[in-house]
Amino acid sequence: AQKVTQAQTEISVVEKEDVTLDCVYETRDTTYYLFWYKQPPSGELVFLIRRNSFDEQNEISGRYSWNFQKSTSSFNFTITASQVVDSAVYFCALSEDSNYQLIWGAGTKLIIKP
Amino acid sequence: DSGVTQTPKHLITATGQRVTLRCSPRSGDLSVYWYQQSLDQGLQFLIQYYNGEERAKGNILERFSAQQFPDLHSELNLSSLELGDSALYFCASSVAGGPFAEAFFGQGTRLTVV
User: Fold this and answer.
1) Rounded distance, CA A10 to CA B60, Å?
2) Which residue among A44, A96, A104 sits closest to B43, beta carbon to beta carbon?
3) Tens of pLDDT, residue by residue, chain A (114 residues)
4) Which of A69, A82, B54, B109 has CA atoms 20 to 30 A from the CA of B18?
5) A104 closest CB neighbour out of B42, B92, B102
């Protein structure tokens, strides 16, 4: 069955530190999609990135980068030089070609201290 | 601002009552999704509509129902409410209806059942 595990419940770092949020997924499909969403204290969910299972190329967007490794079923998210505004809950999610619904991880609460 | 509008933002009601949550998708988006976020269950997919038709169904209780109207707005009806239905209900929309779709979320409706 499909599953997304975010083992880190909460991470606290000091501003300007680099931080990596882990995401491990399980799926039997060969075609699937992985997502990261951010939920700031204001509550809305903000889309960050989507990756499909055929594209293992890592992605960098400013201070954000994502490392997708099919061999370890992981899709980790790194924030470089973290800022207080990065404080939020970050969710990893999975959808499959055979199952349209998004399966969500439990989320990682990231606290960036000034 | 994601462009997805949910009303009301907050709702307090008594057990046994019925409520309707409303969602207006982003202009041009054909697909609408409903999610429930609670402390114990996390984020759960409820249901998806695409251009007026039900596309996918998740962990939606029989007491809950939804529909998407010709103007593409959607309503989620929750009846015979129980204390455990207290949660944040999100609506999201996307242009496409497939599992790869990047969804934009509204700010949510916080439902409190007393």
Assistant:
1) 29
2) A104
3) 789 999 999 999 999 999 999 999 999 999 999 999 999 998 999 999 999 999 888 888 899 999 999 999 999 999 999 999 999 999 999 998 877 788 999 999 999 999
4) B54
5) B42
